[in-house]
Amino acid sequence: MTSGPETTSGPETKQSYAVVGAGAVGGFYGARLTEAGHRVHFLFRGDFAHAKQEGLVVESPLGDVHLGPGELLAYGDPRDLPPCDVVLVATKALVPNPAADLLASMLGPGTEHTTVVTLQNGLGIEEALAPVVGSRTLLGGLCFLCSNKIGPAHVRHLDYGLISLGQHGPTGAAQGVTPPMEQLAADLRGAGIPVALEDDLVAARWKKLIWNAPFNSLSVLLDALPQELLALPEARALVAAVMAEVQAGAAAQGRHIPDAAAQTSMDLTRHMAPYRTSMKLDHDHRRPMEVEAIIGNPIRAAAAHGVDLPVMTTIYRQLCFVDARNQGRLPTLDPA
Amino acid sequence: MTSGPETTSGPETKQSYAVVGAGAVGGFYGARLTEAGHRVHFLFRGDFAHAKQEGLVVESPLGDVHLGPGELLAYGDPRDLPPCDVVLVATKALVPNPAADLLASMLGPGTEHTTVVTLQNGLGIEEALAPVVGSRTLLGGLCFLCSNKIGPAHVRHLDYGLISLGQHGPTGAAQGVTPPMEQLAADLRGAGIPVALEDDLVAARWKKLIWNAPFNSLSVLLDALPQELLALPEARALVAAVMAEVQAGAAAQGRHIPDAAAQTSMDLTRHMAPYRTSMKLDHDHRRPMEVEAIIGNPIRAAAAHGVDLPVMTTIYRQLCFVDARNQGRLPTLDPA
Predict the structure, then answer these.
(1) Chain center to CA of B286
(2) Which of A133, B215, B304, B329 could make an S-S bridge to B324, C-beta 3.0–4.6 Å?
């Protein structure tokens, strides 16, 4: 026996994972990491009983994965998960963030060195989780993924999959590329998932909003596919106006998004296969929508620097109305 | 025989009327004027054959009117109407204004002293008709009327009926109260219709937009009754934001609308029986909506004075999209 550092090899050396919210996003990435030999613990919510009995199915052009009930590490209660090296948060980005309570139950003794990675959309996400994450490393991952949950513990991955990774810092300043980011990127790439490393997580989040803010919101308000919005000059002008306000909000926080990014975003959309946005899917299923993460928080972030975003504010208020009705929070009136 | 002015008495002395567009508005006012002893000629469009055979029915809390086929002066072609003292225009305020061509066919020889009164909603209405009205008197009447067409040549008047009358001047400047306004007001009052005389037609049009701009547009975009919009703080804030932009647009044209007018408009709405706005009815029946008259023209009027209305511009672009889809002017795409 030597007194040097322990060396291990094989699966034991691989980082273990917990996936909080094993839906279209968490189910897909968790299944790929499992396939790559990581020990991945999945926290289910409504689908727990089904997952326990039938396992998890992820269909994908990269190869289908079926984790049977014998191999799937499925949990229904966050207190039952063991400490893991990495926790991937993939619940909806609602307000209050449902992941905050779940993480509070999971981040007990033995998790002091756990890295928390939130894969949630929008702005102000890390800020909502930071109090429970404490001194642990907190990363944000922006998923460019086309994946749907088509049944209980049943995910259909259609296309894409890249994760843009950045590290959160307490002041919101750029943290550069850090060792935990490198380590996570290595795991993801080992599982066949492309990764981009971002110096500046806040800038990356604003940049993703260039697409998410106009297309998610207007697809709901106008019952439209992204490509339909680009087919009429007035609607295209509205998409452009929202993109310009995202740029203005980013600039208010000291982040520059070049005009070309907006143009590229429109051009790519025009050539994508028509599909319903995630907010539209939530709306159509009368699920709560990520209105605050995608529209409300950017407005408030800009307002904190004295920048008014009137187009997004109009859209925000409209979405609040639609969301309130979907969630039964409006009085019902009958017309005369 | 004397050489003094001719004196006549009885029905012959009463002004004759033509009603262009005998729907919910024109049918109601025309029927009341007929009841009051005026000779009223009704120009029908799609309902002509029905009106010729069955007459015109106007139900009203003021008393039902049924003008049978023998008494109803119904026309299907604008060239067939005789010259009248007054032409009431009550078609939809679309772009191009459908009344312009109809008036061009009607205002031939013998109509040099005809007064044209447009009862259409919105802004920029007189400007669209002025070229065909020429040197004749052109009045604008804003109808505060709750009336629906419930079948062919069948109108149901529910409540209200006041007409705010003003005179158009070529520069848009206030014209004061003029003799043609007084004469029309006397006829209308004689028919039981309350009239308000407005020094300044443009100011009156802006003031009416305080209600029409927010409630018509948002009732369509959010599939809502006016009272539902007032039930949620975010939607109420949006209504207030549109009202504030109407005030800003009016101010750009030198017209002052006091803040109290906006507050009063909300308060009255809260206490009205819930009903669908006229734009919502048009939308639900897939008819063209008065988007330009109620939203587009005010935006352009303000822009001509360098004033930007971003909330109304957002709403305008959304309505253009909805209208284009209703009218089959969008390509159809199927989601993946």
Answers:
(1) 19
(2) B329
CA dist., res. A51 & res. A82, Å (int): 18
Chain B residue nearest residue A309, CA to CA = B310
Which residue is closest to B322 within chain A, CA to CA? A222
* Residues of A in Cβ contact (< 8 Å) with B225: 333, 335
Q: Which two tokens stand for residue A104?
A: 């509070």
CATH topology of domain B203-326: N-(1-d-carboxylethyl)-l-norvaline Dehydrogenase; domain 2 (1.10.1040)
- Residue A264's nearest CA partner among A217, A305, A211 is A211
A274 CB within 8 Å of a chain B CB = yes
Domains of chain B: which residue ranges? 14-199, 203-326
DSSP-derived letter for residue A112 is T
Query: Which of B235, B310, B321 has its CB closest to that of A317?
Result: B235
Note whether ipTM > 0.95 here: no
Tens-digit pLDDT profile for residues B175-186: 999 999 999 999
pLDDT digits (tens, 9 = 90+) for A142-151: 999 989 899 9
* Partners of A156 in the β-ladder: A59, A148
Sequence-distant (6+) residues with CB within 8 A of A145 are A24, A25, A28, A157, A160, A161, A162
> Is B313 in Cβ contact with A232 (below 8 Å)?
no
End-to-end alpha-carbon separation of chain A, Å? 88
Nearest C-alpha of chain B: how many angstroms from A50?
A: 27
What's the CATH number for A14-199?
3.40.50.720
pLDDT digits (tens, 9 = 90+) for A66-115: 999 999 999 999 999 999 999 999 999 999 999 999 999 999 999 999 99
Name the nearest CA neighbour of B92 among B289, B321, B243, B317.
B289
**pLDDT at B235 exceeding the cut of 90:** yes
CA–CA min distance B228, chain A (Å):
7
Are B175 and B153 spatial neighbours (Cβ–Cβ below 8 Å)?
no
**Nearest alpha carbon to residue A250 among A204, A214, A293:** A204
Alpha helices (H) along chain B: 26-35, 48-54, 98-106, 125-133, 179-190, 201-221, 226-229, 233-252, 259-271, 278-284, 291, 297-303, 310-326
Q: Active site includes A92?
A: no
Give me the pLDDT at residue A9, please.
45
